[in-house]
């Protein structure tokens, strides 16, 4: 086979000229990229400088979209010594501890005030993420409760306002309580007397879905006539209002729920029994997180302990009624830990 023809000197010169032009273009492109990178870094540094001065606040919903930027005190203040953003889930239970403020479109309440202050004292970037409670802890009638998709799936780092229970402790770790705990009690429809603790044979029992006061806790009281696998006897409701509607309609005979003022004082309900011992929780609500979140629990507990000893925490408690008085819920004496 014949050897390839050697390139002529003219062709070589053309190729060399093209290489020179190509290198010049590459240098120009590199210069543009570097200039753009410097501009981006400058913008980032400017943002971080503002954030660390505590002047930027924001609220992030479950889809990750920022809103409420600026002076709105309902967002968690960014005031950090590092760049990590701690994503903290919160729901809207509907009491003065966590509720949806329709005017601002944000979740407000005692828990929000505490988290704001803790993150500021700890110097951490924190963002409150609204999501459904069952994405933190999922409880289906007739089944064992389990970790929710959101917290187990690392959608956020922790959930705010959750009780430490035996069932949850198998899956999650907990901070120190940030609230005093509520007690489990039994309600019946006012005007009825068909319930006599601890006998539940033939009775339908209503629970709040995903709450710490559930059928597994009730079973620890050595009651009679309870089948926790029977979905016709054990019935879950998403809200207190739905549970009250159900008991008024005769769908359930008794409700096993916390002694929140909204329920205790409700005109359609009668507090039928209050167990002398709490078999449901080992402490009040706090931060619930995955068992690998040692860093979060360390800084949160330290900052909360510090907060409780300050006048800032006293102001949160003293102003609970004024700031969130439009919502039902516990008094400052019932919720504040100091």
UniProtKB/TrEMBL annotation:
The chain crosses the membrane at residues 27-51. It comes from the Eukaryota. Residues 98-316 form the Solute-binding protein family 3/N-terminal domain. Keywords: Membrane, Signal, Transmembrane, Transmembrane helix. This is Solute-binding protein family 3/N-terminal domain-containing protein. It comes from Holothuria leucospilota.
């Amino acid at each position: 086979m014949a050897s390839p023809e050697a390139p002529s000197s003219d062709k070589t010169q053309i190729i060399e000229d093209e290489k020179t032009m190509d290198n010049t273009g590459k240098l120009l492109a590199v210069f543009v990229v570097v200039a753009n990178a410097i501009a981006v870094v400058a913008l980032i540094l400017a943002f971080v400088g503002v954030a660390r001065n505590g002047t930027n606040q924001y609220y992030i919903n479950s889809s990750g979209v920022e809103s409420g930027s600026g002076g709105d005190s309902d967002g968690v203040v960014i005031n950090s010594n590092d760049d990590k953003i701690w994503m903290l889930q919160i729901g809207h239970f509907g009491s003065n501890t966590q509720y949806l403020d329709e005017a601002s479109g944000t979740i407000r309440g005692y828990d929000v005030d505490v988290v704001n202050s803790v993150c500021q004292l700890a110097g951490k970037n924190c963002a409150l993420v609204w999501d459904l409670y069952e994405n933190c802890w999922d409880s289906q009638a007739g089944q064992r409760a389990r970790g929710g998709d959101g917290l187990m799936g690392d959608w956020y780092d922790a959930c705010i306002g959750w009780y430490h229970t035996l069932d949850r402790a198998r899956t999650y770790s907990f901070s120190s309580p940030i609230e005093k705990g509520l007690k489990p009690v039994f309600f019946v429809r006012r005007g009825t007397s068909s319930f006599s603790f601890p006998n539940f044979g033939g009775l339908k029992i209503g629970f709040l879905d995903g709450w710490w006061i559930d059928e597994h806790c009730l079973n620890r009281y050595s009651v009679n006539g309870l089948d926790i696998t029977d979905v016709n006897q054990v019935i879950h409701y998403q809200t207190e209002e739905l549970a009250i509607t159900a008991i008024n309609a005769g769908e359930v005979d008794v409700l096993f729920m916390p002694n929140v003022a909204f329920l205790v004082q409700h005109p359609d309900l009668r507090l039928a029994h209050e167990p002398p011992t709490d078999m449901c929780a080992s402490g009040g609500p706090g931060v619930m997180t995955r068992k690998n979140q040692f860093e979060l629990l360390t800084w949160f507990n330290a900052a909360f302990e510090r907060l409780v000893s300050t006048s800032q925490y006293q102001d949160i408690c003293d102003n609970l009624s004024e700031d969130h008085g439009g919502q039902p819920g516990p008094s400052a004496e019932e919720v504040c830990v100091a």
